[in-house]
Amino acid sequence: MALQNIGAGNSDDAFYRYKMPKMVTKIEGRGNGIKTNIVNMVDVAKALARPPSYTTKYFGCELGAQSKFDEKTGVSLVNGSHDTAKLAGLLEIFIKKYVQCYGCGNPETEVLITKTQMVQLKCAACGFISDVDMRDKLTSFILKNPPEQKKSKDKKALRRAEKERLKEGEAADEENKKVKSKKKGKEVKPTSSPPADVADVDDDNIQWQTDTSAEAARQRVQEQLSAVTADMVMLLDEPEEAKTPHQILVEKVKEDLEKGVGPDVMMSALTGTRKENVNAVYEGLFDGVEKGFAKVVVKRRKYLAAVVADGEEGQMMLLGAVEEYCGKVKNPVAVKEVALVLKALYDADVVEEEYVVKWYGEGLKGGNKDSVIWRNAKPFVEWLQSAESESE
C-alpha cells in the first residue's frame, strides 16, 4: 500500500514519522445514480485517528452533495463523479482543521467536546488545546456524533505500525547506500591519520585521509593558533574584563553561525569545558528568537546533533542547556514553548525519549516541582511515557 506523509506541509520530509495511505477512489453507476466510492476510507481515517464518517461527511459538506458511510460494510460514498485529486485536496483541508495541532502541527490529537458544545483538539505531544471554528458545517455533525473514546489496543497497534514503517524506511535507505557504493566500485572504509614517521609514504597504493572528527579538528586549531592570534580572537568591542567567559563563548558561536561555519568546527573552536560549550552553543543558536523556538530547532538541528554526538552524556548536557536557558533568559516565550522544543528535538532524533524522561525526573527530584519549566514540559514527558508503556 502506497503511503504518504500526513499534512501537505510535511510532504517533502523524508524522515516524517506520521504516514497515511494514499486515497483510492472508484466511480460507480451512471446517469443520476453516479457515485464516487472512496475505496480505502477506513484505512485513511484509521491513520488519522478519526471516524471514517467524519471524513465522508466533510466531503459531502464541501462538495454540496449527499454522502454516506456504512458502518457495517465500511463503504464510503459521495454522490456525483469526483476525481481523486480533488478529494485528496479536501482531505488535506480536513487534516489541517480537524487533525493537526494548531500549536505544534502534530497529527496525534484527540477530538474533545466541551460542556458548552464546542469542538476542540487536544494534542498528546505538547498539550495544546486547539479551538475548532464552529462555523464549519462539519462541527454540527460531530456534536451529534461524538467520537468514541480511543481504545488502547487500537492506539497500540497504530504505534506499532508506525514503528514498523520507520524500520522499513531505514532498511531501504541502507540498501540504497549499498547499491550506490557498489556502482561506484568503492567500499567505504574507516579512515585514519598516518603515523608521523610514515606521513609522506605513498607506495603500495596507500592513501591517507584527514581525520575529520571533532577532537582532531580541535587539536589542529589549538596547534595552529599562536598566542597572539588567540588574543585577537578573544578581542571584543567591550573591554575583555566586562564580559564573562560564558558571554565570550556565546559571541563566538553567533559569529561562527553568521559565517556559516560547520558544527564540528564550531564546537572544536570553543575553549570552555564541555558543559560550558554546550550551554554557549544552545544560547548562541537561540539568541534573539522571540517566538517559534521549535522552528529554529528544525532549522539548526545539525548544530544540536553535533552537540550530542557522543550519546547519553551529550544529550543530558543539551537538555541541561535547555533548562538553564529557560531559567536564565528573561523571555517567557522560551519557557512557554519548552514542550514544543523538546518535541522538535525528539522528532529530529537529536534526543531520545529515555534521556528526556531521565532529565525530567532528575529535575523534579531537585526540589523544583513547581518550577514553570517542569510544568510546561510535563505534557510532552507524559506523552512519551504513555507511548513507551503502550508499545511495551
From TrEMBL:
GO CC term (a single one): cytosol
Nucleus keyword on record: no
Positions of the UniProt region annotated as Disordered: 143-201
GO biological process, one term: formation of cytoplasmic translation initiation complex
Listed InterPro entries: ARM-type_fold (IPR016024), IF2/IF5 (IPR045196), Transl_init_fac_IF2/IF5_dom (IPR002735), Transl_init_fac_IF2/IF5_N (IPR016189), Transl_init_fac_IF2/IF5_Zn-bd (IPR016190), W2_domain (IPR003307)
Top-rank lineage group of the source organism: Eukaryota
GO molecular function list: eukaryotic initiation factor eIF2 binding; GDP-dissociation inhibitor activity; GTP binding; translation initiation factor activity
Keyword vocabulary terms for this entry: GTP-binding, Initiation factor, Nucleotide-binding, Protein biosynthesis
Gene3D superfamilies per record: 1.25.40.180, 2.20.25.350, 3.30.30.170
Residues of the signal peptide: none
Compositional bias ranges of the Basic and acidic residues kind: 159-178
Keyword GTP-binding included in the entry's annotation: yes
Domain W2: 239-392
Family: Belongs to the eIF-2-beta/eIF-5 family.
Primary role: Catalyzes the hydrolysis of GTP bound to the 40S ribosomal initiation complex (40S.mRNA.Met-tRNA[F].eIF-2.GTP) with the subsequent joining of a 60S ribosomal subunit resulting in the release of eIF-2 and the guanine nucleotide. The subsequent joining of a 60S ribosomal subunit results in the formation of a functional 80S initiation complex (80S.mRNA.Met-tRNA[F]).
Protein name (Swiss-Prot/TrEMBL): W2 domain-containing protein
Organism: Lactuca saligna
